[in-house]
Amino acid sequence: MNKRFHTVLPVLLLCLLFALVPPATSMSLREVRGPYKYGGTLRIPILEDLTTLNPLISFKGVDIFAFTLLYPKLLINDPDWRFDAPYLASSYEISPDGKTYTFHLFPNATWDDGTPITSEDVKFSIEYYKKYSCPVTTPHVHNIDSVETPDPHTVVIHLVNASLSWIVVDLWMLYIIPKHIWQNVTDPLHFDNYPPVGAGPFKFSRWVKGQYIEFVANENFWFGRPYLDKVLLVVINTHDAQIMAFKEHAVDVVGIQGNEVPQFLGIPNVTIYQTIDPGLTVLGINNLKDPGRDINFRRAIAHTIDKERIINTVYYGYAKPNDNFLTIPYNISGRWLNPNVPKYSYNLTLAAELLDKAGYKDYDGDGWRDYPNGTKMKLYIETTGNIPTWIRAVEIIADDWRSIGLDTEVVAVDLGQQIADMVLTKNYQFTYYRCGPATSDPLEMLGWFLENQVSGGLNTAAWVNQTYEELYTLARNELDEAKLREIVWKMQLILTQELPNIPTVQGVGLRAVWTDKFEGFINCLPYGPLSNMDVYNFMSLHLRGPPPPMTASITLSVPSSCKVGETVTLKATLVDEKGNPIVNEYIDFIVGGTVIGSAATDSSGVAKLQYTPTSEGSFEVVATYRGSAHYASCSSEPSTLVVGAPPSPPPPPPDYTLYYVAIVIALILIAVLVLFMRKKT
Amino acid sequence: MGFRSFVFRRSIESLITIFIVITLNFYLFRIMPGDPVSIMFNPSISPEAKEIMLKEMGLDKPLLDQYVIYLRNLLRGNLGYSFLLHEPVFKAILERLPNTILLMLSSNIIAIFLGVVLGALAAWKRGSVTDVSSIILSLSLYSMPMFWLGGMMILVFSVQFHLFPIFGIVTPGVEYSSFWDYAWDVLRHLTLPMISLGVGTFGGLFLIMRNTMLDALTEDYTLTAKAIGLKNRTIIFKNVMRNAMLPLITIVSLRLGFMVAGSILTETVFSWPGVGLLIYSSVLAHDYQLLQGAFLIITILVVLANFIADIIYGVADPRIRF
Q: Structure pTM?
């Protein structure tokens, strides 16, 4: 094969790939809509108050709640944690080279103040983030080269580098802000953005600081008005108070722990939703210090983690073991988890043998193992006292370590201290913590083990592996999903062989909801219904019960006058509250208080009845609709029909008999005369 | 030394005290491991985002520069900008201070009333059932952890008997038709935290009052009052208590001075949006600016309270000369 073929073939394959792979079929918000009842106020407890309504400066979970409800993105995450569900963009295409994304905006999307949302707002937002350093959004626009707006509802974004994960990693972090508001803001970091002008299912109503923030339904939301009238985020600063408030029906949902489940199980109309937490709890190992730097030691202690006991004792059964360094939602469609990674079973005997083999023996006879060089070894596992599950899990691990001769102490510190030790100073030996990904991009979690994450980043183990680094670079540039999967599996293999940290368990998130008032809950990944990244539940939740009939109206059309006996057409048009014609429903026509007949509405909502008045007078005409399960009854405004006297009878046709007789007589006389005259001659 | 020179001297001492406290606070918070940005262990915060935030907070500068900037701003009346709330520290505290003052004043009134009255009664009826039961009651309540006492009150009066709301200062989402409706709602929400803080802290006042009353009851003027046939109530409330209450002036003044700091647990348990809760959130978030501002206010209040206590003491007790 010639060189040109080798150049062209990959491009052709790439084109084929993108041609064949349609935009992901995420669930649309329209799919959660239906004939539901409108109304109700949803109350959600939050542990601390919001800090700002400026979406560009805060990463706090509670602030993201507000931003999710108020600010649009081009695409959002659906209940299965796919990140390309339509939101401001109704659809999108990717160019064959993966560097150009074309988004088509909903043409009826508007900001809260009624200003239409156009492609100019999108372009403005991206350019704004390039111009000003906004912590939330600026890091995610570096791969955007330029933005074009060929028409008011089309945005074309050109990337610097093609990336399979651009939507998940970067686009998803970009809020679209209104140009007409923000174009005058030159200091976004100190702009309080109050009151906010956004565009989402809900509009900002009021913020009573320290107490609650209220949102009201956006009547003009382009996916349709939410069924809920209001959403209240209510500040309740302790978990126990939240539980009590939930039981008192003061709030409609609450997150609970495994040990609290039994107290909810007997309560009628309470449902508990479970989701696997995408965060992973690990035994962190400092690979810069002894004994953590010794791979043989790490492999030995991997057999000392009793995941079953941790799940049952600490999480009351609400957790899953993890071996992959990637968390279970990544296994949606079975794509990213490597099934062939080595598994380290809980086996203290084996652990002890491996430690012996690695030289960690009791050299001084004090009953505790020492370093291979004979020096005393004392192990410290650090965790935070703020989180009870962590400290209990660590106690279980420490117990097992002591049972195999490892002199271990548990050190409970403030969370800030623990983070500082892990991230900044690396002043720890072992640590126990949980870290959760922000997205479903597998390279996000795998990227935590890179060299550039050692200092101040998420590589708390300070583990560096050249092959792993190379694989990550390859993965970031790989556009073929099958090849990417191979690389991701290889990276998992390296992690599970080298064990920079030891994955333990993933918790199961539990949320209790009242179902007596609302229905339509969706168990969204990754955190269950009504989390801070969930739009779907806010669009699907509605009051229980059938919706009330929609209001209808009739417009009557009647000729102003007619004559007795003259047939006229009475016309009535029946429409719903949105002006849509109501088809195949019967309208009664009433003239002078008497129902004269009924007619069914056609496809245009028009019912016609022929009417022939039989008496003179001025008559009130009304059309009425009796209503149905879907529409309320209504009547038209009365019209007046004036019926005049019948037309005068036509004069009788003239009587021509005499004329006929006279003509006959005249003809006879003429005939006689002619005969007489002839006879005379 | 006259009154004027006393005031002048105390003012200088107060300013020096405040300055020392400001400096200590500044460095103490920064000694804590981690800064407001690094403790955000959040994968969605990129290194670049952290750089932006550190620079915006001024934490990229050397410590001494930060201190000088802080002092300069203080002299201009600028308490700094809160990292947590993204608003000026002064505004953040001012928004929440009335809530704390409402809670602490009302609970202190209860505590002072109970402490003074029960203390006087217990001293008068020393050794009786009244005395013993008062001591037991006050010490039991005083030794209960505030978060536990508050939690129990919520459980009993809110959850069990549905008498009071569980959290907050107002009912979320309610539109009030008049000021009185709003006031009534606030009062309903205030009742439990006010009572729990009041009854939970009156024990100290009770013991001091009882002990000083016992001392005063042994004085000659008490015996004289009894001898001339004054009624017991007159002796207690008009003669003995006035003298016994002198130490309480200092205690109460200091209590009021510490009212901002003393409300942290109660505000957290009852979700009462005051300065105490703000301090709690700031500690967790390592918001130095907010903590410095809050502690400065606490310091000023305590110093001021102490100062006022000295003056009131001098007015109340003619024996005191400045």
A: 0.81
Average pLDDT for residues A231-253, to the nearest whole number?
A: 95
**Minimum Cα–Cα distance from B153: chain A residue:** A241
Match 């059932």 to its residue by tokens.
B129
Distance (Å, rounded) from C-alpha A565 to C-alpha B221? Answer: 118
- How many CB atoms within 10 Å of residue A355? 23
Mind telling me how many Å the CA of A218 is from chain B's nearest CA? 17
Q: Is the pLDDT of residue A24 over 50?
A: no
- CB pair distance less than 8 Å for B155 and A189: no
pLDDT at A330: 63
Is B281 in contact with A438 (Cβ distance < 8 A)? no
Mind telling me how many Å the CA of B313 is from chain A's nearest CA? 38
- Name which of A329, A324, A327, A357 is nearest A342 in CA terms: A324
Ramachandran region, residue A204 (left: φ > 0; alpha: ψ -120 to 50; beta: rest): beta
Q: Name the most confidently modeled range: A30-44, A652-666, B297-311.
A: A30-44
Distance (Å, whole) CA A45 – CA B168: 12
Which residues on B lie below 8 Å from A232 (Cβ)?
Answer: 172-173
Contacting residues of B for A136, CB less than 8 Å apart: 49
CB-based contact A247 B46, cutoff 8 Å: no
Measure in Å the smallest separation between the Cα of B289 and chain A Cα atoms: 15
Cβ–Cβ pairs < 8 A, chains A and B? 155
Q: β-pairing, A280-285 with A202-208?
A: unpaired
Question: For A3-12, A433-442, B93-102, which range has the lowest pLDDT when averaged over its residues?
Answer: A3-12
**Residues of chain B scoring pLDDT < 50:** none
For position A11, what pLDDT does the model report?
A: 42
In this complex, the residue of B170, B271, B274 whose CB is nearest that of residue A208 is B170
Question: Is residue A445 a contact partner of residue A280, using CB atoms and an 8 Å limit?
Answer: yes
Are the CB atoms for A282 and B196 separated by under 8 Å?
no
CB–CB of A105/B15 below 8 Å? no
In this predicted model, which residue has the larger pLDDT, A632 or A349? A349
pLDDT of res. A53: 94
- Residue of chain A with shortest Cα separation from B82: A51
Which amino acid, one-letter code, is at A310? I
Between helix B3-31 and helix B63-75 the angle, nearest 10°, is 140
Q: Which two tokens stand for residue A425?
A: 């100073």
pLDDT at A67: 94
Q: Cβ neighbours of residue B148 under 8 Å, at least 6 residues apart?
A: none
ipTM of predicted complex? 0.86
Kindly list the residues from chain B whose CB atom is less than 8 angstroms away from the CB atom of residue A415.
Answer: 39, 284
The tens digit of pLDDT for each residue in A556-601 reads 999 989 999 999 999 999 999 889 999 988 999 999 988 889 999 9
How far apart CA B179 and CA A622 sit, in angstroms, is 49
Query: Nearest C-alpha of chain B: how many angstroms from A63?
Result: 11
Residue A261 has pLDDT above 50, yes or no: yes
Q: Are A49 and B173 a contacting pair at CB < 8 A? A: no
How many Å apart are CA A237 and CA A250, to the nearest integer?
A: 14
- At B320 the pLDDT is 66
Using alpha carbons, list the distances in angstroms from residue A238 to B94, B167, B259, B270, B286.
Answer: 24, 10, 22, 8, 19
Amino acid, res. A495: L
Q: What is the mean pLDDT of chain A?
A: 90
What is the pLDDT, as a whole number, of residue B32? 72
Q: Scanning the structure block, which residue is given the tokens 């669009």? A: A539
What is the DSSP annotation of A244-304? Answer: HHHHTTSSSEEEE-GGGHHHHHTSTTEEEEEEE-S-EEEEEE-TTSTTTT-HHHHHHHGGG
Candidates A54, A245, A438; nearest CB to B166: A245
Q: Which of A51, A440, A453 to mutate to test the interface with B (most CBs of B within 10 A)?
A: A51
Lowest model confidence (mean pLDDT) among A156-170, A534-548, B139-153, B256-270: B256-270
Pick from A202, A237, A244, A205: nearest CA to A223: A202
**Residue A235 to residue B168, Cβ atoms within 8 A:** yes
